[in-house]
Amino acid sequence: QVHLVESGGGLVQAGGSLRLSCAVSGHAFGSYVMGWFRQAPGEERELVAVISRNGGSLFHADSVKGRFTISRDNAKSTLYLQMNSLKPEDTAVYYCAAASSALTPIATMEFEYDYWGQGTQVTVSS
Question: In the predicted model, what is the mean pLDDT of the chain?
Fold first, then answer.
């Protein structure tokens, strides 16, 4: 079984920064397409960013483009999300997810992701 553990969430003022991390168990991290999703209260979960297996291809949702950056360290089996210029509307639970069988370098659909973390809360105050 693959376990994903997020960390780095917290309370920050608007305009501030946070860096989320996601540690993945096992030895197959480099074979997973990895993504960050978020879910705000009363809202559906949405895709934030995706990174290909070797880190060569990235996707960022329009709502975070230019402010958030996804990255990965395959040697450390860890996924990151650097979040800058945070806004109150970024407040949500952030989840990392792994897609083990994605047919394309970037997986943008939730059903493509097999493994999920428990989530970490990010709260941005105005």
Answer: 97
